[in-house]
Amino acid sequence: MTLNDKESVVALLFLVVTADGSIAPQEEELVIAASNRMKLLRTLAIPEFNTVVQNIRDAIDAKGRAEVFAAAIKGLPPDLSETVYALATDIVSVDGCVDPQEVACLRQLQEATAISDDLATKIMEVMRIKNRG
Question: Does domain 5-130 have CATH number 1.10.10.10?
Fold first, then answer.
């Protein structure tokens, strides 16, 4: 399985946000908002973005989360590792509850992208502050 850079970013965000088995409305809105802010994803028209999301869902159903995650990590541009980690952390923090499955998925993302514990902790702290109120 091969994913391009755009598909990789969307897949990683989608995998993290659905790690607990569901997606809260606030999380879904934030995935869309984050996609609209990223230069890489801003070029996707709404129908294209929806197609990418559906393709990711279909790939997860057909091949499993682990294979999609591995393909997404492989297709992720290295300069976007920290960005994707920060966005994923923000998205799972927005509903005020970070489930253990989401934490485990974030940890997996951190390890796969070689983000230091120090940076990951700082990002988590900032997102907790940002999403507190």
Answer: no
In this predicted structure, what is the pLDDT of residue 77?
95
Tokens of 85: 């980690």
Domain range summary for the chain, segments of one domain joined by +: 5-130
Instruction: Express each pLDDT in 47-98 by its tens digit.
Output: 998 899 889 989 998 999 999 999 999 999 999 999 999 999 988 887 677 7
One-letter-per-residue 3-state SS of the chain: CCCCHHHHHHHHHHHHHCCCCCCCHHHHHHHHHHHHHCHHHHCCCHHHHHHHHHHHHHHHHHHCHHHHHHHHHHHCCHHHHHHHHHHHHHHHHCCCCCCHHHHHHHHHHHHHCCCCHHHHHHHHHHHHHHCCC
Q: 24-28, 79-83, 89-93, 100-104: which range is least confident on average? A: 24-28
